[in-house]
Amino acid sequence: MHLIPFGRGWENRLQMNSSHNGLIRLVAVFKLVKAATLIVTGVGILKLMHMDVGQEVVHWVAMLGLDPGRPYINQAIEKATNLTPKRIEELGLASFVYAGLFLTEGIGLWMEKQWAEWFTVIITSSLVPLEVYEICRHPSATKIVVLAINVAIVGYLIYHIRTQPHHRHSRSS
């Protein structure tokens, strides 16, 4: 007697699962890159606590060859000069909190955990209103692209959760 592994049509299911897993892994990498960026940002921000932030920004503006007379550059220098050590600490800690959320999402998705898909849908969709608010206040192509990616991630994960047999089974239990 010849046994067919996984029943009939297993090749199609295996191929479909590997493409889903590839997309889930891509989302995981995106989340992990965001986490790494926020960790580096948080460390950089906390290093500023014991420095003259305004002077440090002026130094970086000069090093990068930016024109300090430009309105956005001048505004950035003014805002940096007025940052209190407490506010710098808050910004640094907020970076680490968000990095922790993105690490949790990314690692859970990479390990293909069902809870991570739900967690990512909840966290990512809860941040969409903030992203829209930021785009309304200060529109930029980067912010719009990030918003589009996050909406696509939420949409894909909801589709994935609803169409995967292991998710449908766990919902009915």
What count of helical segments does DSSP give?
7
* Structural class computed from helices and strand pairing: mainly alpha
How many domains in all? 2
Percentage of helical residues?
over 70%
Largest sheet: none
Sequence stretches where pLDDT stays below 50 over 5 or more residues: 1-7, 9-16, 168-173
Q: Strand-residue fraction?
A: under 5%
The overall strand count is 0
- Gap between N and C termini: 35 Å
Average pLDDT level: 85
Shape: elongated
Give the radius of gyration.
22 Å
Order of helices and strands: HHHHHHH
Please tell me about this protein's structure:
By secondary structure, this protein is mainly α. It folds into 2 domains: 13-110; 113-173. It has 7 helices and no strands. It has helices spanning 10-47, 53-63, 71-81, 85-110, 114-137, 141-163, 165-172. Helix 1 packs antiparallel against helix 4, helix 2 (53-63) packs antiparallel against helix 3 and helix 5 (114-137) packs antiparallel against helix 6 (141-163). The chain is elongated.
